[in-house]
Amino acid sequence: MTTPLRILLVDDHTLFRSGLKALLQRQADLEVIGEAADGLEGVKQATQLQPDIVLLDLDMPVMNGRDALAQMLVGQPGLAVLMLTVSEDGEDLAECMKTGARGYLLKNINADFLLDSIRRAVDGDSVLSPEMTAKLVARLRAPVAAPRHSELDSLTPRERETLSHLARGISNKEIARALDLAESTVKVHVQNILRKLGISSRVQAAVYAVEHGLDKP
Amino acid sequence: MTTPLRILLVDDHTLFRSGLKALLQRQADLEVIGEAADGLEGVKQATQLQPDIVLLDLDMPVMNGRDALAQMLVGQPGLAVLMLTVSEDGEDLAECMKTGARGYLLKNINADFLLDSIRRAVDGDSVLSPEMTAKLVARLRAPVAAPRHSELDSLTPRERETLSHLARGISNKEIARALDLAESTVKVHVQNILRKLGISSRVQAAVYAVEHGLDKP
DNA sequence: GGGGCAATCCGCCAAAAGGAGGAGGCGCCC
DNA sequence: GGGCGCCTCCTCCTTTTGGCGGATTGCCCC
């Protein structure tokens, strides 16, 4: 038999780590070689111990799991990292998987599923909690379905409308015609948009609009 | 106990259907209520029989599985459809899931996984063959796999470079500084870009650049 | 009933962009 | 060698933006 899989646990709940460790140690082919209680410590341990796989919580003090994940991967690009979290947020999921997590598991999974996932992840497979698959598919359907709260919120309805037209590349005069306004009013709106978005040209405003899906509303 | 789940099988391989049917009928909570050997027949059966779930092959004569899936869903938007195919193509996967398939399973899965998937799919979960999860994640990472041949090709290298800077929202003068050119030269490039792309303002050029991934090359 | 905010307009000004023309140099290909 | 495309730069001109200032109206909320 080959050497056991060397596992690093990163989670700020001591009891959870203890239980998990006991569970994993019962498997002949698994070995917990280290533990960390926050993201920063986790990154350090990952570098020193060179584990085969990391089980990583999201919500932690000092450094959260997302940042820790990114840090670990710059140091060890091929490292298998399984997110193990309570967050069912599709945003968290997408971020972690984009960053390069090998999997995203909810803490409500049963032991067999976890053990299976660990082995599969080390083999290179991507694994997801069943509940999260649908969320990933949803992202596929609307890749830029960014309902994030942004500076966009600070724009008034009229400003958003103006920006939307601006993004089509038309002049203030034409926007004025489209919105049935004086050109001077449009210029005021554009000024406010630039100020609120912290930018300095209508071109940047247009790019912003496109990137936030405001170009074809 | 509740009534069994009513299943429709759609696959052009008779033997495969027979075997699958035998397998499913062994389960007390499952019942195969219909079979079809091509997509068109499958859509017809789905309409008539109103099954709880459809197992649908991709590669079929007369009408392929993708089109059949779309057809079924216009008629019965909430219908659970599990793709059951040999295609490991990420494109097929993405298309089907975007269209609204409840899952995408490879035919190499074992019986337990299939049975479990059927029950989960009917419950509203999305299910994927383990191998396909990674492909879905890959799509998340690069939503626009840039298969473009476009007017972009008609731009000269210098024009593309200019456009790339333009898309950052900076002035001609600044572009000139960045490219170590006279502002007048930049203006010529911009003119050529507008003409070649068939547009009339730098804002439209910037939007075009962003939409074609030329903003951060 | 006053304060805040969105929305609408004005004017003025400097800077930037758009549009037209011409012109020289360079490399490539027939 | 001549033609062609690309890159470079120029002038002259009009239009558009960006960036001030200020003003009025209407609405909501406390």
From TrEMBL, chains A, B:
The modification 4-aspartylphosphate is found at residue 57. Residues 6-122 form the Response regulatory domain. Keywords: DNA-binding, Phosphoprotein, Transcription, Transcription regulation. InterPro entries: CheY-like_superfamily, NreC/VraR/RcsB-like_REC, Sig_transdc_resp-reg_receiver, Tscrpt_reg_LuxR_C, WalR-like. Pfam families: GerE, Response_reg. Residues 148-213 form the HTH luxR-type domain. This is Response regulator transcription factor. It comes from Vogesella aquatica.
